[in-house]
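Dear colleagues,

As part of the handover before I leave the project, I'm documenting each prediction I ran so the next person doesn't have to rerun anything. This entry is a single chain, and its sequence is reproduced below.
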Amino acid sequence: MKVLVCTDGSELSAKAVEAAIGVAKPLNAEIVGMTAVRGEEPRDGLVGEDHAVQERLAKIYEAARTAGLKCRVMAVHGQAPWVCITKTAIDEDVDFVVMASRGMGSLGSLFIGSETQKTLAQIDRPVLVVR
């Protein structure tokens, strides 16, 4: 079993990480952590990626590791966060998605309330929205 958790670095998405671990722990599920990055993937992987992106992913990884769960993290590049989330859920064949109801806003992050709504409208698996 796999649980996808999405983060934008906001306080609310930190709660989503906690919720994802709460769901995954009793099931001994793998955590797949992701953050969306607008635009095409750089040719050299994470080289040149924003430090904040790496920090967000490290927080997911450490939280899962502390809980004793297997975890993989990734920065997913695409045209919009909801597209990245939906694509990752399919590509990683996750069973469950956990995300915040809204993020830091357009100046601080790619995730906003409308991205959550778009994800809910397009995704084909259960989603836990943390408020």
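Helices lie at 11-27, 51-66, 81-91, 113-122. The longest strand covers residues 30-38.

All the best with the project,
I.
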